[in-house]
Design brief:
The chain is of the alpha+beta class and 418 residues long. The protein is 38% helix and 21% strand. A hairpin with a 5-residue loop joins strand 3 and strand 4. The radius of gyration is 28 Å and the shape is elongated. The chain binds one RNA strand of 76 nucleotides through helix 3, strand 6, strand 10, strand 11 and helix 11.
RNA sequence: GCGGAAUUGGUGAAGUGGUUAACACGCCGGAUUGUGGCUCCGGUAUGCGUGGGUUCGAUCCCCACAUUUCGCCCCA
């Protein structure tokens, strides 16, 4: 038997209902907030992700699906959504007018990692990006949008962690202080952190292995190594969040796994137990240098992404998803009645009535069961004797009342009673 | 990438080195000769993740692999 690749999964039955519901919700909500939908390729040139996500990040160094096409082009299955959106923004010269631009995407991403609860190799991310403004209102809009979205979806006990990475200069300033502080303790850090010390010292703050060590507990606070302007900016962001009733918690050790972030970064964490280790359902931040780094003009941006699989996991607890009930189910026994069922179904569907019937000619009993499984509200019973007199029997599946309708009035009757 | 656990039908699962792999749900058919949902009866895994090995014989023991899952790492 051929099976699905490791870390991939089929979305069927109840999961499919959930996914459809979430997607409908996302589309509605983004439209409501005036975001435009954008779809970019599932794979891009390999260089794009190396330049954006960062050469030193785990995502790029060990988790990408890289391949060469038949013409030896080096390509990578997208591990996240922002890089493609920014590439498209530049390539389509969206910066030429109408800024800031509010975009949202929703699609599958690919990372070669160990699968587990809430983590797959093929997974789905939905995210928004606002390109073209450095105003704190943008930071606040993005964070509160994400927060409200999850609230509306039924999440409770949401926790927003937020931090300010500051400007490039701020970070250089801080990195220097951090390295000076860490230098004498280098031997007490884990092997990964020894490497990070050279490649990406900020990541050491986020290291789970060394978190309990006294070295990290007394580490210099990034918020104290920033310019007055950066500090003021962050203060404003927090102030607005309070106005908007977003519960947040400043976490000076929050740094993201992608290199392109600066200034505001945040994560949204759900305490739903089913999520286990996958409790971070959304994350994002500001990336003011990325557009320029990719060859565009200097355009400040901010965005976030969230994992649909994690939302789906938590949704079991949050609400009971049921299939939409069918308006009608047509039952029949013989061939003549079956022909009638087929044409009647078409006529009803054209009139906007959802209807189904058994195509395989199973027993009447089975057809009744099937009607119940589909939560059909009205049953249309085709009876040869009735048909000869030009009648059709309609049964209300709730009250069990039956009524005989003139065959040529059946559509009108169903439409006005459906 | 590292360490632990699991893998029996459509589903939940019991079970044993040796004839027909329990039970329940579901599904199909019948009693009900064209009106169901209750009840009763019958049917429903040539098969116990895949490939090897041990054995007269393996779903059961051993090995490898795959997949899933938990923890680490990382992340959404």
């Amino acid at each position: 038997m051929i099976t699905k690749p490791k870390g991939c999964y089929d979305v069927i039955d109840k999961e499919a209902l959930k996914l459809n519901k979430i997607n409908r919700y996302i589309n509605y909500y983004c439209d409501f907030y005036n975001y435009d939908f954008i779809r970019t390729p599932l794979f891009e040139s390999r260089e794009l992700f190396h330049r954006t996500v960062g050469e030193s990040t785990d995502i790029v160094t060990k988790e990408t699906y890289d391949f060469k096409d038949r013409n030896d082009r080096e390509l990578t299955l997208r591990p996240e959504g922002t890089a493609g959106v920014v590439r498209s923004f530049i390539e389509n010269k969206m910066y030429g007018s109408n800024l800031p631009r509010k975009l949202y995407y929703n699609g599958t991403m690919y990372r070669y990692e160990r699968p587990g609860n809430g983590r797959n190799r093929e997974f789905t991310q939905f995210g928004v990006e606002i390109l073209g403004s450095n105003d704190v209102a943008v930071d606040v809009e993005v964070i509160s949008f994400a927060y409200r979205l999850f609230e509306e979806l039924g999440f409770q006990d949401l926790n927003v962690k937020i931090n300010n990475l500051g400007s490039k200069e701020d970070r250089e300033h801080y990195k220097k202080a951090l390295k000076e502080y860490l230098q004498p303790h280098l031997n007490n850090l884990c092997d990964d952190c020894k490497v990070r010390f050279e490649t990406n010292p900020l990541r050491i703050l986020d290291c789970k292995v060394d978190q309990d060590s006294s070295v990290l507990k007394n580490v210099p606070n990034i918020l104290e190594y920033q310019s007055e302007e950066s500090k003021e900016r962050f203060k404003k962001v927090l102030e607005y969040l309070r106005f908007l009733d977003v519960d947040y918690e400043v976490d000076a050790k929050l740094v993201r796994g992608l290199d392109y972030y600066d200034y505001t970064v945040f994560e949204i964490i759900s305490s739903e137990e089913v999520l286990g280790n996958a409790s971070t359902i959304a994350a994002g931040g500001r990336y003011n240098d990325l557009v320029e780094k990719l060859g565009g003009p200097s355009i400040p941006c901010m965005g976030f992404a969230c994992g649909l699989e994690r939302i789906m996991l938590a949704m079991d607890k949050i609400e009971n998803i049921e299939k939409r009930p069918l308006d009608c189910y047509i039952l029949y026994v013989n061939e003549e009645e079956k022909m009638k069922a087929i044409t009647l179904a078409q006529d009803l569907r054209c009139s906007g009535i959802s209807v189904d019937y058994d195509v395989t000619g199973r027993s009447l009993k089975s057809q009744f069961k099937e009607a119940d499984r589909n939560h059909a509200q009205l049953l249309i019973l085709l009876n040869s004797e009735d048909l000869q007199h030009g009648w059709i029997t309609v049964k209300d599946n709730l009250t069990k009342e039956e009524i005989k309708i003139e065959e040529n009035e059946i559509i009108d009757y169903i439409v006005s009673n459906g």
